[in-house]
Design goal:
There is one protein chain. This protein is mostly helical. It contains 19 helices and 7 strands. The strands form 3 sheets. The chain has a 3-stranded antiparallel sheet with strand order 1-2-3. The chain has a two-stranded antiparallel ribbon with strand order 4-5. It has a two-stranded antiparallel sheet with strand order 6-7. Strand 2 and strand 3 form a beta hairpin. Helix 8 runs parallel beside helix 12. About 0% of the residues have low confidence.
Length: about 500
């Protein structure tokens, strides 16, 4: 029934508009949920377009049938007859399909209460991006880098690292990419590489920017390339200008005969050729407007080969132009990718594993937070999700993982003097030397002057230092005693210790 189809289309459009408004009012914090929301809105918009086209088709192409149905239900006719007719059709349909589920239009596009994205509308966000891309934040060009290194001609230049490749993958002209277009760019390997690069960047842009009108952007790229190609202004693909050869042209290798389409190495052979019957016949045919069939076929074949070569050059140049424009449009993502790669190069394998674990834990935390959000708001005191055992900040929540790494809180420092107590982070370790636990441990070893024992955590080292300081102190005291000099009644000068011993014996 066209009237019911039209009503259903209008109702679906209204519900989709309400669902879009509901998503726009929500502002998710996690990049995955934000991307899921954008894909939901993009799919809702596409569905609105389909339903609108369906309604317009009824209004424009099936207007007479729709008008007849409306008139059959108007006053002056029996409306119940049409009603029961449609009711019987519905019953017959459900008899033929007894297990057909009934669509709940009221909750079809409603956002779930737990905050998660509805299944089927946003797509598989987790499977849409690789781990290196991190939900559209960075490029993942590792496979394309390997393919680039295997292109013939790359072996002749110094192979770039992945970090260098991120700076020059959209540069196709010297000095960044010193490859001859006539030899290496016309190979199937290079065409496959540049096509894969353009397809990846285009796919990445579609996945990371679902709400933008990308078709309009791509059409603008193609129009710009077409204009530059017609004017011969595409960088690195300017048309070669060939001068027309005269009947007898002196080239670098010899003399060219235009009549016979043949080249001669020296002038004597060429002069003898001019007297030949074949040359005279070809010259007369060329003068009279005719042309030698073999020469004509050769010219046609050369022109066809040249045209085919130019078409292949155009295909390669179009993909290079597409890569340049896409990279320019995503320059921010490219810079973020370079910074991320530099950061990872400076990390150890253990730090990389911890970062990956933190990302997985963050995803699980976002899922757990979404599921417990309602109960936490009601109770006021929700359970803190902290799988990595991060320290708590002033608000009772775990500190961010980047701050945890910045302060080195994942590094363990053990102090034997404190009873093998473990301090997390350099700051806590430096601070504990003046705390009661460490001071008490030194006093148990007979050490009172704790300032001299900073940065010492082993009991054996502290005892050796204590013995060394005591021996030095005694030596200094003895040396100080030896410095005092005394004089007897005869004027003899001697150390105080010797004078004291003699004085006690009554010898002075």
């Amino acid at each position: 029934m066209l009237a019911e189809d039209l009503r259903s289309a209008h109702e679906d459009v209204e519900r989709l508009e309400a669902a879009i408004a509901e998503r726009i009012l929500d502002e998710p914090k996690h990049i995955r949920n934000k991307l899921a929301r954008e894909h939901e809105i993009a799919n809702f918009t596409a569905r609105i377009t389909d339903q609108s086209q369906r309604a317009l088709n009824i209004y424009n192409n099936q207007r007479e049938q729709w008008t007849q149905e409306i008139q059959s239900m108007a006053a002056g006719s029996d409306p119940f007859e049409e009603f029961y007719k449609q009711l019987n059709n519905v019953k017959e349909f459900h008899k033929r399909n007894p297990n057909e589920p009934v669509e709940n239009l009221e909750r079809a596009y409603k956002k779930p209460e737990n905050g998660g994205p509805p299944s089927g509308f946003a797509g598989d966000i987790n499977g849409m991006f690789t781990g290196e891309e991190q939900f559209g934040r960075y490029f993942d060009l590792t496979m394309l880098h390997e393919e680039f290194l295997n292109v013939p001609g790359i072996r002749q230049v110094k192979k770039p690292t992945y970090l260098q490749y991120l700076d020059m993958f959209d540069k196709f002209t010297p000095p960044q990419l010193n490859i001859d277009k006539t030899q290496h760019k016309m190979t199937d390997e290079y065409f496959s590489y540049v096509s894969s690069l353009a397809d990846y960047l285009q796919s990445f842009m579609r996945r990371s920017r679902p709400l933008e009108d990308l078709e309009k952007v791509f059409i603008a790229f193609d129009a710009e390339f077409q204009e530059q190609w017609e004017k011969g202004q595409v960088p690195g693909w300017e048309p070669e200008v060939e001068a027309s050869k005269p009947a007898a042209e002196i080239t670098g290798d010899g003399i060219w005969c235009q009549d016979c389409q043949k080249e001669f190495k020296n002038d004597n052979v060429y002069q003898a050729h001019l007297k030949g019957k074949k040359h005279i016949k070809n010259a007369e045919a060329r003068t009279n407007g005719g042309e030698k069939p073999a020469a004509k076929a050769a010219v046609v074949s050369a022109e066809a080969t040249k045209e085919l070569k130019r078409l292949k050059e155009r295909a390669i140049a179009e993909r290079e132009h597409r890569v340049c424009k896409l990279t320019e449009a995503m320059q921010g993502t490219r810079e973020d990718t370079r910074v991320n790669v530099e950061r990872k190069f400076g990390m150890t394998d253990k730090e990389r594993q911890q970062e990956i674990a933190a990302l997985y834990a963050e995803d699980e935390a976002m899922t757990g937070t979404a599921e417990q959000e309602g109960s936490d708001d009601e109770d006021g005191e929700g359970k803190v999700y902290n799988p990595l055992k991060l320290p708590l900040s002033w608000d009772g929540k775990p500190i961010p993982f980047w701050l945890y790494k910045l302060h080195g809180l994942g590094v363990e420092f053990t102090c034997e003097i404190c009873g093998n107590y473990v301090y997390m982070g350099r700051r806590a370790f430096d601070k504990h030397f003046s705390e009661a636990r460490h001071v008490y441990g030194l006093k148990c070893l007979g050490i009172t002057n704790t300032a001299m024992y900073r940065d010492i955590t082993q009991i054996e080292e502290a005892e050796r230092l204590h013995a060394k300081l005591n021996s030095d102190r005694q030596a200094q005291q003895a040396a100080k005693e030896d410095v005092v000099e005394m004089e007897d009644s005869f004027g003899t000068v001697m150390p105080w210790k010797v004078w004291n011993d003699l004085n006690k014996q009554g010898l002075l």
